[in-house]
């Protein structure tokens, strides 16, 4: 129980509570005085059940007067603050508890709950022994006795409290209170807490440390006299869900402050994102970072300062750590996108170019690996076995891979396209019967805008396995066509026309001069064919079309000036009359005069 002291002055309780809440935050930013945990220099001998039990009792009996006993002495004194010697003794008390905790097998406790749970269960185990009593020392097996036993474990008579040898791991061969016992200690304590203490017991230890604000008092001992914190009205100790009212007030306050900080960061993020600066793409990072910072701070206050217990502790601690790891994963994911966009902007790349897509893909793969590692570490922190999570991810990944083979093939195809770069955004390509301009290369497909303005989406796996004719990468663009002259064109005029066409091509500024072909090529059924084949050196398709147009218009002017006519398809029908005469009918295009062909 708490011994009340007479103070020379009085502070209103509501004002005191408000001041304490403000000072909690200040003191926690500096760091609690008792946050450090040094390894004890003299660990408990755990070579047998006897040595483990005796060592545990010895260390706990040494810790009691340094912790609970010292605080009772301080509260009975008129002093406001703890003396330096008392602070040093409290630090020794914490070291004793750590030493005692090492006699428990804590392997089944999740890392997120191990620190506070081990402290609390160590004190509860001592309280259990103080109420049920222990057998005579000689009845507890020592190392020699256990060497003869087939089963390397011993139970306290009349209980399910076992001390068993650890068979594997870094502490193999040591005798510790078994993991099953550690898990049941709270249940055992609830069953015996109303029993009277045995002589020489460390009475009132657990109740005082659990339901009085000693965590707050010790965290603020340099700022606020501990007795002011401990000496709260009796009504504040009324319990609800195993939490006294003063603790509920602290829980609501801490959660409210944390939520307010997160909401403030969200507002700042939206404001920052609205700024027209290159740094605005990093604004989204502020939201997950706020949760990453706030959640462990809230855990620290709830467990080390307020020392929440019961179902609230068992639910809140894993939940907050889960939020922390998911937020950390969110942070990495958003940071990967921000880095990718920053690199694209710095290199002045087109947002939809293949290089930009490749940068995004590489960063996305890196963030996926990092996010997976964070989630596995988080699963281990909250008590889910990491190896099982990894195995589950492996089996799940195999199932997903089997169910999404085509999707993975498309993703691999996109990676190949981005690395090999057979074409780029804006290139004119031909794929099978498709022809058009590349508009986008995504992680699953490539989109092509055809020359009749439709959008064709081709899966990347098909793009990789097909022959792609990139018309945009041509150094020279071929112009090849036939000039069809009528059969009544004289040979001399044909020769002069061929020379004129060659001259037009040679004098054009964009033609390749060393490979010009203008020759009389064929006697076609309807025309005399002149083959015209040359190359233009122009940067784009539009320049190609304009160059082609200019040359063809010059050829038409040349033909008009020379009186050369171009042929068109005709058909000749020979009809034999009854008298044996032949009549010839020539069919030409509609609206054109019909002329007989030369026989």
Automatic annotation (TrEMBL):
Annotated compartments: Cell membrane
Region forming the signal peptide: 1-35
Record field: transmembrane: 245-265, 285-313, 319-340, 361-379, 385-404
Protein name: Mechanosensitive ion channel protein MscS
Alphabetically ordered keywords of this record: Cell membrane, Membrane, Signal, Transmembrane, Transmembrane helix
Domain Mechanosensitive ion channel MscS C-terminal: 484-563
Start and end residues of each Mechanosensitive ion channel MscS domain: 407-471
InterPro entries on file: LSM_dom_sf, MS_channel_C, MscS_beta-dom_sf, MscS_channel_2nd, MscS_channel_C_sf, MscS_channel_TM-2, YnaI-like
Major subcellular site: membrane
PANTHER family with a match to the protein in the record: LOW CONDUCTANCE MECHANOSENSITIVE CHANNEL YNAI, OW CONDUCTANCE MECHANOSENSITIVE CHANNEL
Claim: Transmembrane is one of the keywords in the record: yes
């Amino acid at each position: 129980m708490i011994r009340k002291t007479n103070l020379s002055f009085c502070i209103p309780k509501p004002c005191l509570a408000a001041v304490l809440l403000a000072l909690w935050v200040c003191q926690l930013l500096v760091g609690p005085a008792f946050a450090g945990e040094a390894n004890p220099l003299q660990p408990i001998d755990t070579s047998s059940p006897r040595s483990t039990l005796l060592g545990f009792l010895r260390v706990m009996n040494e810790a009691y007067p340094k912790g609970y006993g010292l605080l009772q002495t301080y509260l009975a004194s008129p002093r406001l603050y703890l003396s330096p010697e008392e602070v040093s003794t409290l630090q020794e008390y914490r070291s004793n508890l750590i030493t005692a905790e090492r006699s428990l097998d804590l392997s089944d406790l999740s890392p997120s709950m191990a620190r506070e749970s081990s402290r609390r269960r160590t004190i509860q185990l001592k309280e259990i022994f103080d109420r049920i009593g222990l057998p005579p020392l000689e009845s507890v097996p020592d190392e020699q006795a256990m060497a003869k036993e087939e089963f390397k474990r011993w139970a306290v008579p009349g209980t399910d409290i076992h001390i068993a040898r650890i068979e594997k791991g870094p502490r193999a061969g040591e005798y510790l209170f078994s993991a099953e016992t550690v898990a049941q200690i709270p249940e055992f304590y609830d069953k015996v807490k109303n029993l009277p203490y045995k002589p020489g017991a460390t009475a009132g230890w657990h109740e005082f440390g659990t339901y009085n604000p000693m965590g707050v008092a010790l965290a603020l001992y340099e700022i606020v006299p501990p007795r002011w914190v401990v000496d709260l009205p009796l009504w504040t100790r009324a319990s609800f869900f195993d939490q006294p009212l003063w603790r509920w007030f602290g829980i609501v306050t801490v959660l409210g402050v944390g939520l307010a900080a997160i909401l403030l960061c969200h507002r700042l993020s939206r404001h920052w994102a609205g700024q027209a600066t290159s740094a605005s793409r990093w604004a989204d990072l502020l939201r997950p970072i706020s949760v990453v910072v706030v959640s462990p701070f809230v855990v620290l206050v709830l467990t080390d300062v307020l020392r929440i217990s019961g179902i609230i502790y068992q639910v809140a601690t894993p939940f907050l750590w889960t939020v922390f790891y998911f937020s950390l994963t969110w942070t990495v994911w958003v940071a990967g996108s921000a880095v990718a966009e920053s690199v694209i902007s710095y290199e002045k790349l087109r947002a939809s170019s293949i290089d930009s897509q490749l940068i995004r893909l590489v960063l996305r793969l890196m963030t996926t690996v990092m996010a997976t590692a964070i989630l596995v570490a988080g699963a281990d922190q909250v008590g889910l076995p990491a190896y099982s999570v990894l195995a589950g991810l492996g089996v799940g990944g195999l199932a997903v891979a089997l169910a999404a083979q085509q999707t993975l093939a498309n993703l691999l195809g996109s990676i190949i396209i981005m690395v090999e770069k057979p074409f780029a955004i804006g290139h004119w390509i031909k794929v099978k019967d498709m022809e058009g301009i590349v508009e986008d290369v995504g992680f699953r497909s490539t989109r092509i805008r055809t020359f009749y303005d439709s959008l064709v989406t081709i899966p990347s796996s098909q793009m990789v396995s097909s022959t792609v004719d990139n018309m945009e990468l041509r150094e020279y663009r071929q112009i090849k066509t036939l000039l069809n002259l009528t059969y009544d064109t004289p040979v001399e005029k044909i020769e002069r026309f061929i020379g004129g066409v060659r001259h037009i091509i040679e004098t054009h500024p964009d033609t390749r001069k060393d490979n010009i072909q203008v020759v009389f090529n064929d006697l076609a059924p309807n025309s005399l064919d002149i083959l015209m084949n040359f190359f233009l050196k122009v940067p784009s398709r539009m320049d190609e079309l304009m160059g082609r147009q200019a040359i063809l218009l010059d050829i038409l002017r040349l033909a008009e000036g020379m009186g050369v006519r171009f042929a068109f398809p005709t058909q000749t029908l020979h009809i034999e009359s009854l008298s044996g005469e032949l009549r010839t009918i020539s069919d030409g295009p509609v609206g054109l005069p019909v002329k007989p062909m030369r026989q």
